[in-house]
UniProtKB/TrEMBL annotation:
Residues covered by the DUF1828 domain: 33-121
Domain of life: Bacteria
Protein name: DUF1828 domain-containing protein
Biological source species: Gluconacetobacter aggeris
Length: 265
């Protein structure tokens, strides 16, 4: 099969699944791609009183919300914003629909293709595991720490406070270069990780080890409830729990003070 023949076959495959139908609001269009429920990913050209725009039906984000998946903040929100921006689209907070801005002319076929591509890519956020969210949070935090404290401390992934604590690696270990106190940071996206921070703190007390601090950080607190007995026990036994997103500078300031770094106010 040569390139031209393959191109014809691919065009035939895509076009055979293409559907464009009139609906009360304008036109509905779909292609070969399916959503999580096995239904075709569908977009709409909404002809709203001479100000047309592209939109989905709002069910995708509504289903995510009802499943407890928050796309209003954190790494999922950043991912969605990046994907939708490529098609000039955004999330309407009132209707939970993905749409473009209204214009005085109907979108071109190229713009419709870009919008459909964004709808398909947006589906990926449903498959993000907690580990991927944690990984992205870890990268963001590491960059911020190095930018703020890079001249005053070293940062070690999976760092341990000493061989006697090798069973309790932290996600990020802050080690002061000159003056200061080491801080073992646990990214507590789940109760389990918060419990590990507490366990390390208790082990330190048993060994009378007082030359380090234990800190838990959560990206936005969405998976932790202070009403939970496990969470309250852990928080009361470590040196701090910080919520990072939306107040990053204050969180970094707190880390600096906890580590007693010279530049901390």
């Amino acid at each position: 099969m040569n390139a031209e023949h393959l191109k014809e076959k691919l065009c035939a495959a895509f076009c055979s699944e293409l559907s464009v139908n009139p609906v009360p609001a304008g036109l509905a269009f779909s292609g070969i791609f399916e959503d999580l429920n096995g239904d075709r990913v569908t977009g709409y050209l909404v002809r709203d009183r001479g100000a047309p725009y592209l939109s989905d039906d709002g069910s995708f984000l509504s289903d995510l919300e009802s499943s407890g998946i928050d796309i209003s903040e954190g790494t999922r929100a950043q991912f969605m914003q990046g994907v939708l921006a490529s098609a000039g689209a955004f999330i309407d907070p009132e209707t939970l629909s993905i749409r473009t801005h209204s214009t005085d002319r109907e979108p071109t076929p190229d713009q419709i293709v870009l919008f459909m591509s964004a709808l398909v890519r947006a589906q990926d956020v449903s498959f993000w595991s907690r580990e991927r969210v944690k990984s992205t949070f870890s990268e963001d935090l590491m960059i911020a720490l190095v930018n703020r404290f890079g001249n005053e401390a070293k940062f070690i992934r999976q760092g341990i406070l000493g061989e006697e604590f090798s069973d309790f690696p932290s996600d990020i270990l802050l080690k002061p270069i000159n003056k200061g106190i080491p801080v073992a940071m646990f990214l507590a996206q789940t109760t389990e990780r918060l419990t590990e921070a507490m366990t390390l703190s208790q082990e330190m007390r048993i060994r009378h080890f007082r030359s380090a601090k234990i800190l838990a950080l959560t990206e936005n607190g969405e998976n932790l409830s202070l009403a939970s007995r496990k969470v309250s026990r852990a928080v009361n036994r470590i040196d701090g729990l910080l919520v990072y997103r939306h107040d990053e500078d204050a969180a970094l300031d707190r880390i600096g003070r906890l580590a007693e770094l010279p530049i901390a106010a």
